[in-house]
């Protein structure tokens, strides 16, 4: 997920978010601001972190009024500090007030994900293991959340169900076993698609390797078993570690030697980065 792809797809999602917040009118703003008045408001960071989603933040105001001017003193991926002024929004005060919450919701959420991802990615620095996200994203927010993971130094796993083959426990159960699941996937899928399968123990791993899986996901296995799994899979398949990976416990996985570590926590458990619009005034 890159910046260009996000820009191509974000307008209808942002408009939906605005429509959720303004079903007919912003009655509070309209009650205190009856007509056009040019104004400015500052974007202030209230917490140290990594910023992500500046284009989305800006686009919220542009969709309300294309004449709105938004300028930033930083770019996505930059580290920001508590108390730092990182932007200025200039335009119709009614637009600044009506777009404030939606714009901040996007920027705070995306920056929180980027900040949390950066914290974990830093713990993996020096290893050959890549940090991946998952599909455990907020509905209708996936494109923004996966972009934020990349800004924070992580990598994107498959974007959706059409993007790659990942045989999990219930797929294996439906197919009748590990070998059957891999065989059926090989028969159905285009030859350019890699086949990944989730295993829970070394016996399942051996079956997956014999069946010719390309990537083995080691799900909630012990550190000792994962180390053995990496040895068994070397030269035969790539390995991915998964299962309740968080900032607090990822350090134990650094020396296992897996190719990838995937963490749903990047998108489902990262706290927001606290940001605020302050000092609104007419100009």
Verbal overview:
- This protein is of the alpha/beta class.
- Helices cover 42% and strands 20% of the residues.
- The chain is built from eleven helices and twelve strands.
- The longest helix is centred in the middle third of the chain and has 31 residues, at 93-123.
- The model has no long low-confidence stretch (mean pLDDT 96).
- Order of strands, main sheet, comes to 6-11-10-9-8-7
How is the biggest beta sheet arranged? Answer: 6 strands, parallel
Radius of gyration: 23 Å
Number of strands: 12
Percent strand? 15-25%
Distance between the termini: 39 Å
- Give me the strand/helix succession: HHHEEHEEEHEHEHHEHEHEEHE
Structural class: alpha/beta
Assign a percent range to the helix content: 40-55%
Average pLDDT over all residues: 96
Number of H/I helices: 11
Shape: elongated
Uncertain segments are: none
């Amino acid at each position: 997920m890159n910046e260009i792809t996000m820009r191509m797809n974000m307008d209808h999602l942002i408009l939906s978010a605005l429509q959720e917040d303004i079903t007919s009118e912003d009655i509070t703003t309209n009650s205190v601001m009856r007509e056009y008045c040019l104004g400015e408001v500052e974007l202030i960071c209230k917490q140290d972190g990594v910023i992500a989603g500046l284009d989305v933040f800006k686009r919220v105001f542009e969709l309300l009024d294309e004449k709105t001017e938004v300028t930033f003193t930083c770019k996505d991926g930059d580290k920001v500090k508590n108390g730092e002024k990182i932007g200025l929004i200039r335009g119709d005060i009614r637009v600044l007030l009506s777009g404030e919450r939606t714009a901040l919701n996007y920027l705070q959420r995306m920056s929180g994900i980027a900040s949390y991802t950066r914290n974990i990615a830093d713990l993996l620095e020096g290893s050959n293991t890549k940090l991946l996200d998952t599909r455990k994203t907020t509905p209708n927010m996936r494109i923004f959340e996966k972009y934020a993971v990349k800004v924070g130094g992580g990598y994107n796993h498959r974007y959706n169900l059409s993007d790659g083959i990942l045989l999990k426990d219930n797929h294996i159960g439906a197919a009748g076993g590990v070998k059957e699941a891999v065989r059926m996937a090989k028969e159905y899928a285009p030859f350019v698609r890699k086949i990944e399968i989730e295993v829970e123990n070394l016996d399942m791993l051996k079956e997956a390797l014999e069946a010719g899986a390309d990537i083995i996901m080691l799900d909630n296995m012990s550190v000792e078993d994962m180390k053995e799994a990496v040895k068994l899979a070397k030269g035969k398949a790539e390995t991915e570690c998964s299962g309740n990976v968080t900032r607090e416990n990822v350090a134990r996985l650094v020396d296992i030697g897996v190719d990838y570590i995937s963490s749903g926590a990047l998108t489902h458990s990262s706290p927001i980065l606290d940001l605020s619009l302050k000092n609104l005034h007419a100009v």
